[in-house]
Each structure stands twice: as structure tokens, then as C-alpha cells.
Specification:
single chain, about 350 residues, BirA Bifunctional Protein, domain 2, 2 domains, seven-stranded mixed β-sheet, binds zinc ion
């Protein structure tokens, strides 16, 4: 009985090598493993055997069946492969045929355009362009910037906290609310004197409308060194105003509180549209608030490892998104993140 089964296996393995097409493979398979196949016949013989012997032969029969199935599967795969290769070979591509639809080139996003313009200006004044993580630790985004836990300023910058990434006890991960998060990182990495800008995306948990969006862009600036004064900051603001809206554009600095500067200012530009007379864009005030900044708070310098008794500096955070909206007269902030081609093709 065992001999017969081995013989069956040998026979199949020899015959299957001679098969040259899928049909004869199937026929052969059927001949051995089909309902009336040779193996089935042998199995029926098994019923006549004594219990112990039947078990042993049953095991061998299963092994033979498995060997036949494996050989069959292998040849099947080979036919599949041949058919695929044949299909690919017969596909003909005319490389001279024109493409589908118009051949559009795409353009640079308006936020990126303004960002690149400002990068040109600042690098010409000796600033480095730095980058920082968008998923930031609570420490760099708030605490290091003189905004400890439970500080009321946190309420105005509600953001997205990310669970499961706690670095250490009490230090949560947040989507950064401001590019200022890179200030202390930069001070620790590069020391002083430093002149750097940090353009990038920021996030807030906002109820979105025409003026509020969960994602927006800022351009942070940081200058720290010996003898840096408020007048240096004003000079930089004036240079930016001249560069963006023409030489002689008026600016003014109004006091404003930010936890990470002392004193802090709300830097305003004379409205480029109405030249100070008052219009819809400047909400009839004649001025546009686009340049918040101030002298870096001693606590922030200390976090960066800098001695505030020796060094001083200023920082600012331009609203890139706002500058873009003003420049192009965009009335709804949501267009900028929409990815809508009807909007993007205008730039
Ligand atoms: Zn105006």
C-alpha cells in the first residue's frame, strides 16, 4: 500500500514536468486528486486495512497529497507569471502622444512667496534662517517663554495636545502655537550673539471663520547680543516696512503685554491702502497691526542659558498669514489652507 502511494507521487511529479499548458495541468491534477482520481481510489483501499495500519497509511497518503498539491501550485504560478509577462509585452506605449489635459506648471503658494521675500531681506541683514518642530514640548512652547502652567496667556493660545508622547513628568506635547517656541532652542544651540528668523506653521484650537484658522504661519525673529536696544528693534521694523510697502512707510509702536518680552510692543504699519485715512482693511484706524515684538524677557534669556545682566535682545513674531492677506487683499483666511486650485491658480 505504501509502495503504491509512493508510486503515485513519483508518477505525478514526472508527468507534471511534461505539462506545457494550463489545460493539461488541470487535467493531470484532476486525474490524481479529483473526485474519481487515483489517490481517492487508493484511499478507498485503505478502508479494508486493520486500524493500526490504516492510521500509518493515512498519514503517508496525506503526505503524498500535499506533495502533489505543492508541485501543482508551483506550475500554476509559473503559468500565471508567463501570462502576465506576455500581457505587459504586448502593451504598446506611444511616447510622442500629447499628455491628457492641459500641461500646467503649478505655482508657489502665496504664503511661501512672502516668506521667501522676507527670508531674502533678513539674510541680507545677517540673520540665520532656522527651523523647529511643529509638534513641540509644552516646555518650549510655553514654560520656557515665561508662561508657566496655569498662566492666563495659555487660555488665549488653546492648542492641540498630543497624548502618549510625554517626555517626562508634566511635560506634555503640543502642536506649537507660535514660532517663539524655537527661541530657547536657538539660544541653547547657538549661544550669543545671535540673529535668527524662524518662519513656520503654527496651530491653535480655533472655531474657524473668515479671520480664524487652526493652522497659520508666523515669522519669528530673535536678536540677542551685548548692547542690543529697543532702537535696534525699531530699525528692523522700519526696514521690514520699507521692504514690504515702499521706502518711508510709517510705523508706530504701541505698548502691549506679552509674557515673554519686557517691555512689549504692538508694531503697526500705516495702512498702505488708505495711507492712514481709514478704510475697510484697517477698520478705519489708518494703521495695521502686523509686527508684535519686544525686548526678550530676562527669564527667557536665563532659560536659554544666557546671562540677562550681560546680554539683551529683542524678539518679534510677524503674522505671515496676515501679511499675505493684506498684500493680496484676501478676505477669508480659510482660502490659504483649502488647497482649492481655483484660489491657488491666481498666484
Ligand atoms: Zn486703511
Amino acid at each position: 500500500m505504501k509502495k503504491e502511494l509512493d508510486q503515485l507521487k513519483k508518477e505525478f511529479l514526472t508527468l507534471v514536468e511534461r505539462v506545457s499548458d494550463r489545460d493539461s495541468l488541470e487535467t493531470l491534477h484532476n486525474e490524481f486528486l479529483g473526485r474519481k482520481g487515483k489517490l481517492k481510489g487508493a484511499m478507498q483501499e485503505m478502508a479494508k486495512l486493520a486500524d493500526g495500519e490504516r492510521k500509518a497509511i493515512g498519514k503517508i497518503a496525506n503526505e503524498v497529497k500535499e506533495a502533489i498539491e505543492i508541485a501543482y501550485g508551483g506550475h500554476q504560478a509559473q503559468f500565471n507569471k508567463q501570462e502576465r509577462e506576455h500581457a505587459m509585452g504586448s502593451e504598446w506605449v506611444d511616447v510622442t502622444q500629447p499628455g491628457l489635459g492641459e500641461n500646467s506648471k503649478g505655482s508657489i503658494h502665496p504664503v511661501t512667496q512672502v516668506q521667501q521675500d522676507l527670508e531674502d531681506l533678513f539674510t541680507s541683514m545677517g540673520f540665520m534662517v532656522l527651523d523647529g518642530p511643529e509638534l513641540e514640548s509644552d516646555y518650549y512652547n510655553f514654560t520656557a517663554l515665561n508662561i508657566p502652567p496655569a498662566h492666563p496667556a495659555r487660555d488665549m493660545q488653546d492648542t492641540f495636545y498630543v497624548e502618549g508622547h510625554e517626555k517626562k513628568e508634566g511635560d506634555k506635547w503640543v502642536m506649537r502655537t507660535q514660532t517663539s517656541s524655537v527661541q530657547v532652542r536657538a539660544l541653547r544651540e547657538y549661544g550669543v550673539p545671535i540673529r535668527a528668523i524662524i518662519p513656520g506653521r503654527c496651530f491653535r484650537n480655533e472655531a474657524t471663520d473668515a479671520r480664524h484658522e487652526h493652522t497659520f504661519h508666523q515669522l519669528e525673529g530673535l536678536v540677542v547680543g551685548k548692547g542690543i536696544t529697543f532702537a535696534d528693534m525699531k530699525g528692523v521694523f522700519q526696514a521690514v516696512a520699507d521692504y514690504l510697502y515702499g521706502k518711508g512707510t510709517k510705523i508706530r509702536l504701541m505698548p502691549k503685554f506679552y509674557p515673554f518680552v519686557e517691555p512689549g510692543v504692538r508694531g503697526e504699519l500705516e495702512c498702505f491702502l488708505c495711507k492712514g485715512k481709514g478704510c475697510r482693511v484697517c477698520k478705519q484706524s489708518g494703521w495695521l497691526e502686523v509686527m508684535p515684538g519686544g525686548m526678550v524677557h530676562p527669564n527667557v534669556l536665563r532659560e536659554g542659558g544666557i546671562d540677562p545682566e550681560v546680554y539683551s535682545g529683542f524678539a518679534f513674531g510677524f503674522g505671515l498669514t496676515r501679511l499675505v492677506m493684506l498684500k493680496y487683499g484676501i478676505d477669508d483666511i480659510r482660502h490659504l489652507e483649502s488647497g482649492d486650485l481655483r484660489f491657488l491658480k491666481q498666484f
